[in-house]
Amino acid sequence: MRKILTPLLLLLITSSGYSQLFFDGGLKGYLSTTWLINERIFNNPDYVHSPSMGGGFGAKLGLNFNENVQIAAEVMVANFNQKFSIAEENDDNWNKLVHISSLDFPFLIRHNKDNGGYFELGPQYSMVKEATESYQDGSTLSVSNDFDRSYLSAVVGFGGYMMGWENFGICLGFRLAYSFEDIISKGGKGDAGSYKATVTNVPTGTYKATNGFMAGLVIEFNYDLGYLAKSPCGNRREFLFFQ
Questions:
Q1: Neighbour tally for 59: CB within 10 Å
Q2: On the chain, which terminus has fewer CB atoms closer than 10 Å, C or N?
């Protein structure tokens, strides 16, 4: 995480010459492709990672140092899916869906360009609420204990302003997130060198981490809230709403 936080702090230092702090808030939603990445599973020809979709929604609060530099804290209710088509010994395919629901907390530095574009970067803390596996026979099994209750990811995104008026605006962007930490718990680490809830044809060997990856479109409905103004009578500051 140090490699992520260092450039963020440098960006804050270089932007310290702000004229007035102001705040904005917004509602967000996203639709993304989602992947569970494990080297041993990817290299196994019997496992096919079927295209899987996830998504989420939530809110953000932004602290703006000037028109270009912002710190944004978000809370997102997220859903992550991974479908597998697994070849059996009798040449039949056995399908499985891994579903993870979480509460995500991105903390991002955002650079807003004068032309309406933006770039964002920062860490994300995820709290896993539930994890399940669903099978082609219609049954579902809880596997929450096989996943860490929380983990960190790196987030990067970019996009631009679409439309708006007065203090309200709509942005559309693209965001990627990758969990550099293994999201499998100690109890979920199997003897086959990967996540234990797999079929027996995964060759045994050195354990490999499982990481989550998402990439998708993000839409943001943003509203400028107000700003901190210095009182004319002393050094006290007060919050004033935009008219």
A1: 15
A2: C
In whole angstroms, give the CA distance from residue 146 to residue 132: 10
- Count of C-beta atoms within a 10 Å radius of residue 212: 23
CA distance 76 to 146: 22
Phi first, then psi: give them for residue 92, nearest 5 degrees. Answer: -85, 160
Nearest to 146 by CA among 133, 136, 159: 133
Which pLDDT belongs to residue 48? 83
Q: What domains are there in the chain, each with its CATH number? A: 2-13+24-241 (2.40.160)
Rg over alpha carbons for the chain, rounded to the nearest Å, is: 22
Look up residue 114 and give its two tokens.
């004068």
Q: Which of 138, 136, 24, 115 is nearest to 71 (CA)?
A: 24
Strand-strand pairing, 53-64 and 22-38: antiparallel
Q: What is the mean pLDDT of residues 220-224?
A: 93
Task: Tell me the pLDDT band of 18, cut-offs 50, 70 and 90.
Answer: very low
Half-sphere exposure of residue 38, counting CA atoms within 13 Å on the CB side?
A: 27
Residues in Cβ contact with 233 at an 8 Å cutoff, skipping those fewer than 6 apart: none
Distance of CA 215 to the CA centre of its chain: 9
- Residue-wise pLDDT tens digits, 113-141: 988 899 999 999 999 999 999 988 888 99
Residue count (the chain): 243
For residue 91, give both structure tokens. Answer: 């040449």
For the cut 50, the answer to whether the pLDDT of residue 87 exceeds it is: yes
CA atoms within 13 A on the CB side of 102: 24
